[in-house]
Amino acid sequence: MKDNTPEYTPVEKIGGVYVKRDDLYCRAGIQGGKVRACWHLATHGLKPCEGLITASARKSPQAQIVARLANVLGIPARCHMPTGGLTEEMKDVEAHGGTLIQHRAGYNNVLIARAMADHKTRKRWRYIPFGMEHPAAVKCTRAQVANVPRGVKRIVIPLGSGISAAGVLHGLRDCKIDVPVLGVRVGADPIKRLNAFGPFAWHEQMTIVKTRIAYHKSITAHIGDVPLDPIYEAKCLEYVRQGDLLWVVGIRAPVIIIPGMQG
Q1: Distance between CA atoms of 239 and 209, rounded to whole angstroms?
Q2: What three-state secondary structure class fits 13?
Q3: 82: β partners
Q4: What is the CB neighbour count within 10 angstroms for residue 200?
Q5: Is the separation of the CB atoms in 191 and 161 below 8 Å?
Q6: Cα-flanking dihedrals φ and ψ of residue 54, to 5°?
Q7: Residue 258: band (very low, low, confident or very high) from pLDDT cuts 50, 70, 90
Q8: Which residues are registered as beta bridge partners of 128?
Q9: What domains can you pick out in the chain, each with its CATH number?
Q10: Is the pLDDT of residue 261 over 70?
Q11: What does the pLDDT read at residue 5?
C-alpha cells in the first residue's frame, strides 16, 4: 500500500507558539508519528508478514495502532498487555480484530519477554517493539525536523519511551538547528533508551522534567483548536512558553479524520 501522506507534517503557529502537527499523519483512523513508525515496521521487509505482535501498557495507544494497521493489512494482531479491566484502548484493539493476551501486572521487561517468546513461535509474524524501540522509528521522526522554523526558541516534547525525542535530537543535528529541547517525562525513565537511540551527548541539548501528574490520569487540554493527547501532550502544556515549539507526537483514537490524510 502506497503511503500517500505529505512528506512532512505541518508546523502551525498558534498564539505565539509553534505546533509540530505530527498527529496529522493518519492511517486506519489513528494518528501520529508512532503510526508512521509502526506502518514502516509492518510493511518494510524482504517478505510480507503474516501477523503483528506487540507489548503495550493498558493506557498506551501502541496496541491500538498495531491492531488497526494489522486490520488494514488484512492480517491478525496479538497484543500482550497487563491484567485489569478493559481500557478504551484495549476495547479498541478488540473492535479492530486484535487479540488481547493479558499477563499479571509486573515490570515492562516481563511483558516484553512474553511478547517476544510468542513471536518466536510465529516465525512469519513481525514483532513491533514496545515503545517502538527500533532504529527505523527514530529515522521516521528524524526526517520530520526538516520543516522546523528557524525562529523557534525551544522544542517541548513528551517523553514516553523517548524514541520520538531521540529522533528529534538527531534531526536537529542533521539540520544544524541549535535550540534547546525540554523533554517532559510522563511515564517510565527514558534515559536508557535515549542513551541507546539518541545522538552522542544528547543530554547537552535536552533537559528532562518530570510531570507531577500521574501517568494514568487523563487531562483535557487544547492549544488553539488542536486537541492534545490526554496522557502525553496535555501534560506538557504547563511548560510551553512563547516562541516554543510543542512537538505533538500523536492523538489517540477516537480521532478526527483529516480529509486527504488517511492511508
Answers
A1: 9
A2: strand
A3: 103
A4: 7
A5: no
A6: -150, 170
A7: very low
A8: 54
A9: 11-34+134-251 (3.40.50.1100), 36-131 (3.40.50.1100)
A10: no
A11: 57
Residues near 26 by beta carbon (within 8 Å), at least 6 away in sequence: 5, 35, 255, 257, 258, 261, 262, 263
With a CB cutoff of 8 Å and minimum separation 6, the contacts of 131 are 62, 160, 161, 162, 163, 193
Give residue 187's pLDDT. 87
Neighbour-count burial of 57, counting CB atoms closer than 10 A to its CB (0-12 exposed, 13-18 middle, 19+ buried): buried
**Which triple of cell numbers denotes residue 140?**
521516521
Burial of 86 (0-12, 13-18, 19+ CB in 10 A): middle
Q: Which three cell numbers stand for residue 199?
A: 545522538
Cα–Cα distance for residue pair 117/96, rounded to 1 Å: 24
What is the percent of the chain where pLDDT is above 70?
A: 94
H-helix segments, the chain: 33-43, 62-73, 88-95, 108-120, 135-142, 163-174, 191-197
Pairing of strands 26-27, 154-159: unpaired
Dump pLDDT digits (tens) for 163-173.
999 999 999 99
- Per-residue confidence (pLDDT) for residue 216, from 0 to 100: 87
pTM greater than 0.85 (yes/no):
yes
3-state secondary structure of 38: helix
- For residue range 99-127, list pLDDT tens digits in order: 999 998 777 888 999 999 999 999 899 99
Cell of 83: 491484567
Cβ 255 vs Cβ 30: under 8 Å: yes
All 3 cell numbers of residue 79? 497484543
